[in-house]
Specification:
Strand order of the largest sheet: 1-2-3
Structural class: alpha+beta
Distance between the termini: 11 Å
CATH class: Alpha Beta
Number of domains: 1
Helix content: 40-55%
Radius of gyration: 12 Å
Shape: globular
Number of helices: 3
Number of strands: 3
Order of helices and strands: EEEHHH
Strand content: 25-35%
């Protein structure tokens, strides 16, 4: 299952996430800090979404109340909900 998520309050503009049985198969991140987000992608692809959510949730960026990692956790949560609803 693939879904698109529009993050809020961060530099990145869009995430395309592919999940299969709760595992992150791919994530494309548009906008934001390319090096950091490429690194995050390498770290999370192949892992269970629930594990990644718990690791990234609540991360902030300077004075902002959110960050790209935090927004990715929100996107993954939504993707999991959609995947479970489709079954």
């Amino acid at each position: 299952m693939t879904m698109t998520y529009t993050p809020r309050g961060v530099c990145s503009r869009r995430y395309d996430i592919t999940l299969e049985d709760g595992v992150i198969k791919d994530i494309e991140i548009y906008g934001g800090c390319n090096g950091n987000l490429s690194g995050i992608k390498r770290l999370i692809v192949g892992r269970k979404a629930e594990e990644v959510i718990s690791l990234l949730r609540g991360t902030t960026c300077g004075p902002r109340p959110t960050s790209c990692p935090d927004q990715i956790s929100l996107a993954l949560e939504k993707a999991l909900e959609m995947e479970k609803a489709a079954v």
